[in-house]
Specification:
binds zinc ion, seven-stranded mixed sheet, 25% helix
Length: 452
């Protein structure tokens, strides 16, 4: 019989150490170690003489078309891969206050309205508080059951009695199983509770949705320690200061991880944004220097966004560079290429680059747009507002081909753009109606067309 052992566990990545550490050697985070009791003994692995599983020839496995449940939110359905799969375990992660609870409350409402029994478990709010928020969001259905509970055993017995088709746990970090000595929110508790819920989901065919808070402090276990247990991981991106939220799948056993869903936070709840390009460009600064429109591809979806740059003379010695919504290192490399290959003197200039609307774009095809915004701000001349810039910039200053250029041009044409500067290599044979594709070999040539 082994005794319960004390250990220190990183709450971000679950790295365990026999002594406390300031910095995690595995994930590099600071102050994330919390004292945890190791599970006293692994559950006795008793081999029961149950019916043995028999291997089946693959040709005789029946083709199963997973029946999916629509969540009533097209943007969410797309990210899930076409709807919620019964018996699946879905983790919805994001910073506190970003809209996880709002989105799942709305989903509960739709499912309950369609006559499905939904169990909403909150470890953070009382039943009365849940009702207050539900009223604000216009949620009212007798099929929606609410439970204010933290004890996993109580939650599972309630679920067994009510037999819901879907369960929402808000949040997984507040749930604890009494069989473990660690505190709620610790890695051991969060993992064990999730594993129990997985068994329940698979055993009963109930779809289980978990809310997982991502916190900077690292005092509670982050959703990352659960990613390998659950079927699907969705993360909310964006920040509370901006209205737009992007829901992205980082893991999905039932669909692609490329798709994104776009939402807008409104007082009455999360509104879907079916036409994100138009929304992201709605506040665009027209005919202002330092602004360029790029077309990024998110999964199968082209997305037009505005890149802004501000270039000003450095006051104190070292020039400053910042990038928000873009990869910082990529921007720094791009600035070096512009200096060396396009004759832009940025050595004594501060450069601030950002993507408007709080969106993050992480694609080399946006390079040319960033270069255009920087050149435009430096020369104090605007980029023509009817032009979109597409292309990856190489270290030699060449403009490199990007995937699916036709799709991007179609989106640009749909939103009324009349010209697009594209790499000559891989340029489309026919541009969509109303749009002229201007080909360029190098970033210098492209900038000559964009910033006149
Ligand atoms: Zn760690």
């Amino acid at each position: 019989m082994s005794k319960a052992k004390l250990q220190y566990v990183c709450q971000t990545c679950a790295y365990a150490s026999p002594k406390w550490l300031g910095k995690c050697p595995s994930c590099g985070e600071w102050n994330t170690f919390v004292e945890e009791m190791q599970a006293a003994a692994p559950r006795a692995a008793v081999r029961t003489a149950g019916p043995a599983a028999v291997p089946v020839p693959i040709t005789e496995v029946p083709e199963s078309q997973e029946p999916r449940i629509s969540t009533g939110r097209e943007e969410l359905d797309r990210v899930l891969g076409g709807g919620l799969v019964p018996g699946s375990l879905v983790l919805v992660g994001g910073e506190p206050g970003i809209g996880k609870t709002t989105l799942l409350s709305e989903v509960c409402n739709v499912l309950a309205r369609d006559g499905r029994t939904v169990l909403y478990v909150s470890g953070e709010e009382s039943a009365a508080q849940i009702k207050l928020r539900a009223q604000r969001l216009g949620v009212a259905s007798p099929h929606l059951l609410v439970l204010a509970e933290n004890d996993l055993d109580a939650i599972l017995s309630a679920a067994e009695q009510t037999r819901p088709q879907a369960i929402v746990i808000d949040s997984i970090q507040t749930v604890y199983t009494p069989s473990l000595p660690s505190a709620p929110g610790s890695v051991a508790q969060v993992r064990e509770s999730t594993a129990e819920l997985l068994r329940f989901a698979k055993g009963t065919g109930t779809a289980v949705l978990l809310v997982g808070h991502v916190t900077k402090e690292g005092q509670i276990a982050g959703p990352r320690v659960l990613e390998h247990i659950v079927d699907t991981v969705l993360y909310f991106e964006g920040d509370r200061q901006h209205a737009y939220r992007i829901l992205r799948a980082t893991k999905n056993r039932f669909g692609s991880t490329n798709e994104i869903g776009v939402f807008e936070m409104r007082p009455e709840g999360l509104r879907e944004v079916p036409n994100p390009s138009a929304a992201f460009l709605s506040e665009r600064a027209r005919e202002a220097p330092g602004s360029a429109v790029v077309c990024a591809l998110e999964g199968s979806r082209p997305l037009l966004v505005e890149v802004q740059a501000l270039v000003t003379a450095t006051v104190f010695g070292m020039p400053r560079r910042t990038a928000s919504g873009l990869d910082y290192n990529r921007v720094v490399v791009l600035l070096a290429v512009l200096e060396k290959r396009a004759g832009l003197h940025l050595g004594s200039q501060d450069v601030y680059v950002s993507v408007a609307g709080g969106v993050t774009v992480d694609e080399p095809a946006t390079d040319l747009g960033v270069a255009a915004a920087v050149a435009s701000s430096l020369r104090n001349r605007p980029v023509d507002e009817s032009v979109v810039a597409i292309g990856e910039v190489g270290l030699a200053g060449e403009l490199r081909a990007v995937p699916q250029v036709e799709k991007r041009l179609q989106e640009a044409a749909r939103l009324g753009f009349r010209r697009a500067v594209v790499p000559r290599h891989g340029a489309p044979e026919h541009a969509p109606d109303g749009l002229e594709a201007v080909e360029a070999d190098s970033v210098a040539e492209a900038l000559a067309r964009l910033v006149t």
